[in-house]
UniProtKB/TrEMBL annotation:
Pfam family name, one: zf-CCCH_DUS3L
Native source organism of the sequence: Esox lucius (Northern pike)
InterPro entries documented for this protein: Aldolase_TIM (IPR013785), DUS-like_FMN-bd (IPR035587), tRNA_hU_synthase_CS (IPR018517), Znf_CCCH (IPR000571)
Zinc finger boundaries on the chain: C3H1-type: 111-141, 154-179
Entry's Gene Ontology BP terms: mRNA processing
Stretches the record annotates as Disordered: 52-111
PANTHER family, sorted: TRNA-DIHYDROURIDINE(47) SYNTHASE [NAD(P)(+)]-LIKE (PTHR45846:SF1)
UniProt-recorded name of the protein: tRNA-dihydrouridine(47) synthase [NAD(P)(+)]
Upper taxonomic lineage: Eukaryota, Metazoa, Chordata, Craniata, Vertebrata
Length: 618
């Protein structure tokens, strides 16, 4: 975690704009790679396998008009002038950045309306307790006749664990279903897996019931709240209500009187600097983190979980805390606005799950979180922030870390004022994203400012984050004093970046190798979400969300200037084979084609709208 002379430091930011993209065009090679939008999509629509051989004779005729035909993506639109905006009544498009506002809020689509009863799938000896009132199928022959066709010949769950718990409902059932429709078991493989628990931190049903009935004791949290508010939790709630009724703003300096509580203090591991894979909602899931671990990520962190949802026992929120056995250094990230709920959440996690650290996300920029005073809002509510950190530290047995941004407003950095205060509050590590809330991803990360803050944070480790997409970026960070780097978008665009940084090279990875990575993700997804129809389509949905990032990668072998920068916009280009071109498409329909290579055809009622709009390319 801490600084070391042989550390792998963080990177410098990239450059915005499309003018930095240069595809290799020595000799007539330009005609093999650069293309127009229309030609690019025409190739993908036709499904043509040979990109260059059949049309090589046409190159000479195209040379005269080649430069005119190569389209660059449109330039970013300038921010609307406030006076002009008021006169025309047009809404500022900047407010929409990074979010697909037109994406409707829909319940998960059910792709398997005729589902088999769990009592049959699990081959229970006892009959279904619901009897004739059961809403699921009990006639196996009728179910098998209406079941969608199997996707593949081999079942990853059966090959890995010796038994597929989805039985007849598995979309790879032919690999482990006998002629008499019985689920086969590989006893030898089952024996090997006996005693292993690949995934930990699942929500216990008894704990869920106690959380919903509000009978879980929070002794340590209540004791802390009494030390802060004389009336205990009741007075804390009154203070929260009063705080909600006010317009909160920057409140530096008011620290108040505090009772002495235990703190972890700065971490002092000096063996190696860690590469941390950061959270990304929808994409930083457990299967994806397994991919990152395979390529060399040292630390993994779960997706942001809302503390109130955890305290209510919501299964979907607790799923974000799950930890795979390959994650040897793993933390969970929580978000909240008030000291009583955050302290109780910390005590709940400390007593019920296995983690190496707990991270407070005080850098989340989304409106839903910020307007309630959470995320970036905590940076301007320092009294509440101090109470949260001190309270969580008093109930945790593991280090408490914090993720922040440079500030809220674009030109008003406040992290350098906040970091010295956080050192006295007992924070064990700080992660600093080099942009403000207002900047989102439209500007380059400010690594000079990160360097300044890392000096202020010493001896507490500070990890830098922002615009890291290559080992060259990491090498430039040797000039900074950060203790390590956190990767988020860079890992989503090219998860092999961890290998590149550790081996100090640009990896010209082939399209077949990239497809193998996607195939491994689908295997991990089927293991995590299930190999039945619902699990398979959920895996497909997360795969498509990830492909909205991977399409931004440009192969090293096509670049005139290496490496690729994270905020640069690539032109339309042909890959070295059809699959590489398909992976370069930013059209949702082409992402679906890739998913069908791995998970079979989509259902007739399938629909998908991407969550991320790739604001850096807008």
């Amino acid at each position: 975690y801490t600084r070391h002379t042989d550390r792998i430091p963080c990177c410098t930011g990239g450059f915005g704009g499309s003018s930095f993209w240069k595809i290799r065009y020595s000799s007539p090679s330009i005609f093999r790679f650069l293309t127009t939008k229309e030609q690019f999509h025409a190739l993908l629509d036709s499904g043509e396998k040979c990109l260059h051989g059949e049309k090589a004779s046409d190159d000479t005729g195209q040379k005269e008009t080649a430069e005119d035909s190569f389209e660059e993506p449109q330039e970013k639109k300038l921010k609307v002038d406030p006076d002009e905006q008021e006169r025309t009544g047009k809404q500022d498009s900047k407010r929409m950045r990074g979010q697909n506002k037109s994406r409707p809020h829909m319940k998960p689509t059910s792709y398997d309306t005729r589902r088999l009863c769990p009592s049959i799938i699990q081959e229970r000896e006892a009959k279904c307790v619901f009897g004739d009132k059961c809403k699921f199928f009990h006639d196996v022959a009728e179910y098998m006749a209406s079941k969608p066709a199997d996707v593949g010949e081999r079942c990853y769950l059966y090959d890995t664990f010796g038994k597929c718990h989805y039985g007849l409902s598995c979309r790879f059932a032919r690999a482990h279903i006998s002629a008499d429709l019985k689920n086969l078991v590989n006893e030898e493989r089952v024996e090997e897996m006996l005693g292993r628990k690949p995934v930990r931190n699942s929500l216990d049903k008894d704990l869920q019931w106690r959380l919903r009935k509000k009978v879980v004791p929070f002794t340590a949290s209540d004791a802390y709240m009494k030390s802060v508010f004389k009336g205990g939790p009741k007075e804390a709630k009154k203070a929260q209500s009063a705080d909600n009724g006010k317009r909160w703003g920057c409140c530096f300096g008011g620290r108040g009187m505090w009772s002495i509580v235990k703190t972890i203090g700065p971490l002092t591991d000096t063996d190696i600097i860690k590469l941390r894979q950061g959270e990304k909602k929808q994409c930083g899931n457990l299967p994806f983190r397994r991919i990152c671990k395979r390529f060399g990520a040292d630390i993994t962190c779960g997706e942001m979980a809302m503390c109130t949802n955890l305290l209510q026992g919501q299964s979907s929120e607790w799923a974000l805390l799950k930890r795979h056995e390959s994650e040897d250094l793993f933390g969970v990230q929580v978000e909240g606005c008030f000291p009583d709920t955050m302290t109780r959440c910390a005590e709940l996690l400390n007593n019920n799950i296995d983690v190496d650290f707990v991270d407070i996300n005080s850098g989340c920029p989304i409106d839903l979180v910020y307007k309630k005073g959470g995320g970036c809002g905590l940076m301007t509510r320092t009294n509440k922030f101090q109470q949260i950190i001190t309270g969580m530290n008093s109930v945790l047995d593991v280090p408490l870390t914090v993720k922040i941004r440079t500030g809220v407003q674009e030109k008003t950095n406040i992290a350098h004022k906040l970091i010295p205060e956080m050192k006295t509050w007992g924070v064990s590590m700080i992660t600093l994203h080099g942009r403000s809330r207002e900047q989102r991803y439209t500007k380059s990360a400010d690594w000079d400012y990160i360097n300044t803050c890392s000096q202020l944070a010493s001896p507490i480790p500070l990890f830098g984050n922002g615009d890291i997409l290559s080992y060259v970026d990491a090498m430039k960070a040797r000039e900074t004093n950060v203790s390590g780097i956190m990767l988020a978008r860079g890992a989503l665009i090219k998860p092999w970046i961890f290998t590149e940084i550790k081996e100090g090279r640009n990896w010209d990875i082939s399209s077949s190798e990239r497809l193998d990575i996607l195939r491994d993700f689908t295997h991990y997804g089927l293991e995590h979400w299930g190999s039945d129809t619902q699990g398979l389509e959920k895996t497909r949905n997360f795969l498509l969300e990830w492909l909205s990032f991977t399409c931004r990668y440009i192969p090293v072998g096509l670049l005139e200037r290496v490496p690729q920068r994270i905020n640069e916009r690539p032109p339309y280009y042909f890959g070295r084979d059809y699959l590489e071109s398909l992976m370069a498409s930013q059209h949702v329909g082409d992402w679906v084609k890739i998913s069908e290579m791995l998970l079979g055809p989509v259902p007739t009622n399938f629909n998908f709208l991407p969550k991320h709009k790739a604001n850096a390319y807008k």
